[in-house]
Amino acid sequence: MARTPETRVPTSECRETRRTTLNKLAKKFDITISLCLGSLTRWLFCFFSTVSFPISVHLNCGLLAILVPYILHM
């Protein structure tokens, strides 16, 4: 029994589905990266504040001034 052209899925439809799937994966990946960066910056800040507190409070203030807008922007 020969297949009629209507039963075949158009190539453009396949491409569209693939693109949608890739977009969903990319969004999940972006969220994961943002979360990792957020926790990394928090860890770095904790590390710097414990190590450099006796040495220089100014460094912490500078670090905070740089990191806070960056974290809030994410």
Automatic annotation (TrEMBL):
Keyword terms, alphabetized: Membrane, Transmembrane, Transmembrane helix
UniProt key word Transmembrane helix: yes
Transmembrane domains' residue ranges: 51-72
Keyword Transmembrane helix attributed: yes
Superkingdom classification of source: Eukaryota
Protein name: Uncharacterized protein
Source species of the chain: Macrolepiota fuliginosa MF-IS2
